[in-house]
UniProtKB/TrEMBL annotation:
Binding region for DNA: 28-47
Keywords: DNA-binding, Transcription, Transcription regulation
Protein name: HTH tetR-type domain-containing protein
HTH tetR-type domain segment(s): 5-65
Transmembrane segments: none
Species of provenance: Ktedonobacter robiniae
Alphabetized InterPro entries for the sequence: DNA-bd_HTH_TetR-type_CS, Homeodomain-like_sf, HTH-type_TetR-like_transc_reg, HTH_TetR, Tet_transcr_reg_TetR-rel_C_sf
SUPFAM superfamilies: Homeodomain-like, Tetracyclin repressor-like, C-terminal domain
């Protein structure tokens, strides 16, 4: 019999599949139980309701995504450049459909959860910004010193969010293969943003490791705060 972590992972994977297929609003705990092949009571042993399950799923999804992203950074000789940073993001997002929906705030998938004042999607997007990343990479010689961080960040976000949302405007059969676009976009970023000497990719990787560690700590703090808030509400 699976232990607690394996069973919880089984439920979270099932929830991912159901929510991507029919959206948060239409998904029920029974749907998730059926997808996971367990009883609804088993799902309630781990999660007290759909919102609690979904917030656990957001944390789990970010953890899976960040692991793929960081592994891509580490295995890429140019992983510490801005082009390498985005190449890894696109690779990770391409393998995690729910994370892609989170990044573009897909209302079909995320539904009314986005209206929640303290929703975790907004929380996940707060904190470190692309501007901070560019400044940090400039400081270690992994990005050109003459760049305006705010303007550069705006252009990078325009490119990256455009890649995430282009399928909303053009039919998929009109689009070049995603891996080809990913590599071309990352190469274009490096041609534009790297210093003439090629930049210090290893120092850039250390910056990115710190960004991942800080973001993970912030999201874990958010998760624990939500759990404590629910426990306090139940006691009252």
């Amino acid at each position: 019999m699976p232990d607690h972590d394996e069973r919880e992972t089984q439920i979270l994977r099932a929830a991912t599949a159901v929510i991507i297929r029919q959206g948060y609003d239409k998904t029920t705990m029974s749907d998730i139980a059926d997808e996971a092949g367990v009883s609804r009571g088993t799902v309630y042993l781990y999660f007290k309701g759909k919102e609690e399950l979904f917030e656990a799923l957001l944390y789990w999804e970010w953890t899976q995504y960040s692991q793929i992203w960081l592994e891509a950074i580490e295995s890429d000789p140019r992983g510490g450049t801005i082009g390498g940073f985005y190449r890894a993001i696109f690779r990770a997002v391409g393998s995690r459909p729910l994370m892609a929906s989170i990044m573009r705030r897909d209302r079909r998938v995320l539904g009314n959860y986005l209206r929640k004042p303290d929703n975790q999607v907004a929380w996940m997007e707060s904190g470190s910004t692309t501007v901070d990343l560019i400044k940090a990479l400039q400081a270690v010689g992994a990005a050109r010193q003459d760049l305006d961080p705010e303007v550069t960040a705006h252009l990078l976000e325009t490119l990256s969010y455009g890649q995430l949302t282009i399928a909303d405007f053009k039919s998929p059969d009109q689009l070049p293969p995603f891996p080809v676009v990913m590599e071309a976009l990352a190469d274009m970023m490096d041609r534009w943003l790297l210093p003439e000497d090629g930049g210090n990719s290893e120092a850039g990787k250390e910056v990115i490791r710190q960004v991942v560690a800080e973001t993970k700590g912030r999201i874990e703090q958010m998760r624990l705060s939500n759990v404590q808030a629910r426990d306090t509400k139940e006691v009252v």
